[in-house]
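User: Can you help me understand a structure? I only have the sequence.
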Amino acid sequence: MLTVAVTGDVGAGKSHLVNIWASLGAGVIDADSAAKSQWSKREVLDRALGRWGSGILRDGAPDFREIAKRAFSDEEEYRFMTSLIHPGTAADIRRAAASLRGFVVLEIPLLFESGTFDWVDYIVYVSAPYRQRVQRNAAREWSAEEIARRERFMAERDEKMAKSNAVLVNDGDIEGWEAVSRECGIRLSAMATVHEFSVCCATREDALRLASLLVEKRLAACVNIWAAWSCYLWKGGIHDEPEWHMSCKTTARSLRPAMECVRANHPYELPAITAVELSRSDPATLEWIVDCCGS
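Assistant: Let's start by predicting it. Here is the structure, written out as tokens:
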């Protein structure tokens, strides 16, 4: 499992990128939807009404345009709004993410501003030139002034980019952005499904031979070998003897060919191969494994 947070400039193309990743099989959680759902909680709405009055309602329901006018009017009001909805939003997102597996994507525009997502594995920052962002936000009826009004409460973009694992720049046409998005999504999907499989050999020489074969064929990024003692049932008898354990790191794409390679070259009649999907691993290590296995 790999939990990837997508954040970035207002109007840079985050949602389009996330939609492409969803088409590749990613499980997607939208922070804006989670934030809006906070307003259905009575205690949240009551606190807002107590501060801003009934003008934030339309036909008895929260009017998010009016709420935004008040929340982005000055620093104090913005801090009140974030204290109102950020804790519940973060908790709901974490619960939703915990129910998913594989490639999990969180679209969180205010990731760094909320400061509550230290459990995320990988951060992608989406950037775009200011003029293009203004043009794209015209469809949302956001003027350049509205973008500036919202962004003045956010952390410095250079600082946020420096804290991210990857920065994607959306400064071309839609086809180019889709190609960049798809390429990055395929790579992250491979990182999200890295596996470790194990098998034992009777001798150290057999283990080293198989390990070299797997690495040379780029079916495994690395193989760890250590002495073990095994007790197992085989053909009606109990066997108790020393073996050499192999632990091999690979990708989901290379897993099946790697296991077939072991079976074809192992001296045992039945090499007992087991595999598990790795979870919450170091992102740099996952990238290395993906690169080594050519996925």
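Now, to help you interpret it: The first strand starts at residue 2 and ends at 8. The mean pLDDT is 92. Let me know which part you'd like to focus on.
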